Amino acid sequence: MATVLVTRPAEVRERTAATARRLGHAVMFAPVMTIRALDVPRPDFTGVQALLVTSRQAVGTVAAWQPTPPVWAVGDGTKAALDEAGVPVVGVGAGDGVSLGRLLAEHLAPARGLLLHASGAVTAHGLQSTLQAAGFAYRAIAVYRAVGVPALPPAVADALDRGVVDAVTLHSPESAKRLLELVEAAGLGERLSAVTGLCLSENVAMAARSRRWRELRVASQPDERGMGGLLEALPL
Asked: Is beta strand 33-37 parallel, antiparallel or unpaired with respect to 138-148?
């Protein structure tokens, strides 16, 4: 049985934790970011041909905006959250911004109007660059902000110090960077050399490579199924 440290925010960590437990692993929590919804009034959707949602964190705001132009989701997890909130979804990407951008370019036309992205305050550039390269007008509107926590939970710092953490889930470049900052602040940076980092994408792995790990593994697809595959490959 491996001990897995799940670093997702408290609001969305249970799915990853449930997968780890189902596979026989022990779970610890160290949410390195907290999510704060921003007070954003309903936009004027004149000239907007589609609304893009790339995180579950944006779902509450998008639900409050209904009705909206057709909604496209970045992946199955975000679509499931939109379905639960009663928001119709017309298309679903493969779990990352680039794949969603390519899907939109296949089905929509730049002349039909703006693509509006309900995003976080910090966004990856894959979706924007893919759409703009295809000639689309793109605009992001921040509906939530991820804020770093001030310190690791004491029990997690102790577990890292004792070498009982086998793997850490890393879900975004920002959370990977914040985890490294927290570990360094606790004087535990060298302890990561005995820990495997489970990265949702290559971009996440790039953010984590400033510190030496036992190993960094990248999911085969950037979603919960991909993370589940990494968890399944851990030794029991």
From this structure: antiparallel
Please give the pLDDT value at position 87. Answer: 98
Which domains are assigned to the chain? 3-32+149-232 (3.40.50.10090), 36-146 (3.40.50.10090)
Peptide bond into 235 cis (omega under 30): no
Q: What is the pTM of this model?
A: 0.83
> Phi first, then psi: what are they for 233, rounded to 5°?
-80, -10
**Of the candidates 179, 185, 167, 175, the residue with the CA atom closest to the CA atom of residue 230:** 167
d(CA 36, CA 68): 23
Residue environment code for 64-74, b if the CB has 16+ CB neighbours within 10 A, otherwise e:
ebeebbebbbb
Sign of CA dihedral 157, 163, 165, 170: positive
Q: Which residues contact 221 (CB under 8 A, 6 or more apart)?
A: 94, 95
